[in-house]
Amino acid sequence: MAYRGGLAAVSLPFFAGLALWAEPLIHWALGAPWLPAAGYLRALLPLFWVRLCTVPVSTAGIAAGKQKATMIWQGALLAASLCAGAAAERLGLEPEKALLTLSALLCGCYLAFYVYCGKNCA
Asked: What is the pLDDT at residue 4?
């Protein structure tokens, strides 16, 4: 699997550009009332990038006969989402920070399964 970092390297400039120019892009596409969405976009961009880079490998678990591991991973995604929502509510986080918490937890789940597939599904 020599191509492991290829998709990440190719897509990083695109996602970095989206983060840098979120306000002008949203203003151009949706108008001034939507400018707060730039913060939400920035909070979710790490998750979108990690998913783009890891999801192609996620089917390796099923192809390798690791359905139980894939099921546990899917359960972890659900649990992480519920935990992020509960933490945001309990801590009174504003939406942008709540999305950042969700993004961080889900990124961890995706990266953990990516590493698992790299070690056990090749």
From this structure: 63
